[in-house]
Write a structure and sequence with these properties.
The protein is α/β, with parallel strands linked by helices. It folds into three domains: 82 residues, no CATH class; 179 residues, Rossmann fold, CATH 3.40.50; 81 residues, Transcription Regulator spoIIAA, CATH 3.30.750. A hairpin with a 2-residue loop joins β1 and β2. The radius of gyration is 22 Å and the shape is globular. The relative contact order is 0.11.
Length: 367
């Protein structure tokens, strides 16, 4: 027997376990050849090559769910057939500036910093339309009533039908985020994790959340918002969830909050997406992307990420480049973070990044 994780649960699974292929909700039926496979119990080795969600069949992907269902007295695992490209949570975080809110995959956590609210809504509709095409469960949140949120989605194909079927739900921010929850980010993030698990249990291949967080950022301490985003990022990375958090560029700490998302967009042409991101995973602080002229933004993000750490372990495996001035500042920050629990450690640095840190006087920290 071996244990396979899926939908936030663990199941005992025999290596000879059979599987059954089902169509993800909201996905149009495929061609007759693929349609013959739907609902048919198959041996695992027949589908093993694409069960990881990396291969496609005529434009479709087959994704594991980890859910078991009885068929003819036998427990079989449910696999979902959905359009290719929906993606799976990535083992290696993708740090990128984004030109649009499409092309996202499960595990992506995006900060969309906007100047124009109408421009953001247009991008949000495109994002939700993409999720609908992949058969995902959708959640749209923002300021105002449910009726106002519905009106914001005018032009979203199939909006009313998706609302009626439960594929799309609308949530005023006050009903989705409890005021006190900002002080308990683990509890708030757990609500989204459970919602994602329910979506999987209901047969959807994943979930997509698009929320304008500006009103909350305007009345909440910046450190609390930052702690929430760091906690949310770690959860999203490991679940079949796409998370988009939008903030007006006038919101307090908008640049700091953006730095705590692995994918970013700013619609101010002269002030593009930050070329780096900071996140936490497995007790480590990660710094990825490129750090040069944006070094002024790096240190506050690192400080927030390290706020609760007794001893800092900084993972630079996703850091592509680090210029001399940024290396000097990073070395100074590492030195200041030395405390009773010990000196910080730097792991995963490339040869180029390691050379810059050694030249900046941080050879003592580089593993």
């Amino acid at each position: 027997m071996r244990v396979a994780a899926g939908a936030g649960r663990a199941y005992a699974r025999d290596v000879t376990q059979k599987v059954v292929l089902r169509l993800a909700p909201g996905v149009p039926p495929p061609d007759p050849g693929l349609r013959l496979l739907l609902g048919t119990v198959l041996h695992r080795d027949v589908l093993e090559a694409f069960a990881a969600g990396t291969a496609t069949l005529d434009g479709f992907a087959v994704l594991p769910t980890g859910r078991l269902t009885p068929v003819d007295g036998e427990q079989v695992e449910v696999l979902l057939l959905q359009p290719a490209g929906a993606g799976t949570p990535s083992d290696r975080p993708r740090v990128a500036g984004l030109p649009s809110l499409t092309g996202l995959g499960h595990g992506d956590h995006v900060c969309w910093t906007y100047r124009s609210h109408e421009g953001y809504l247009a991008a949000a509709r495109s994002c939700l339309a993409e999720g609908a095409g992949r058969g995902e469960r959708l959640l749209h949140a923002g300021a105002g009533s449910a009726e106002q949120l519905r009106d914001e989605l005018d032009g979203l194909p199939g909006r009313d039908a998706m609302l009626a079927s439960g594929q799309l739900s609308l949530h005023p921010l006050g009903t989705l985020y409890e005021a006190a929850a900002w002080k308990r980010p683990d509890e708030q993030v757990a609500r989204f994790r459970r919602a994602t698990e329910r979506a999987l249990d209901d047969g959807w291949p994943g979930m997509r959340v698009v929320a304008d967080m500006t009103p909350l950022a305007e009345v909440t301490e910046l450190t609390a918002v930052a702690a929430y985003e760091l906690t949310a990022d770690a959860m999203i990375a490991d679940h079949r969830l796409v998370g988009v958090c939008a903030y007006s560029e006038q919101a307090p700490g908008a640049r700091l909050v953006a730095a705590l998302h692995r994918q970013q967009h700013r619609d101010t042409v002269a002030d593009g997406a930050l070329p780096f991101a900071v996140w936490r995973r497995d007790g480590r602080i990660h710094l990825g992307g490129q750090v040069g002229a944006a070094a002024d933004d790096v240190m506050p993000a690192l400080e927030v990420a390290a706020a609760s750490a007794d001893r800092v372990t900084l993972d630079l495996s996703a850091l592509v480049s680090l210029d001399h001035d940024a290396a000097r500042r990073l070395a100074g920050w590492l030195e200041r973070r030395t405390g009773p629990a010990g000196a910080p450690r730097v792991t995963g640095a490339s040869a180029v990044v390691r050379r810059e840190l050694v030249a900046a006087g941080a050879a003592w920290a580089v593993a």
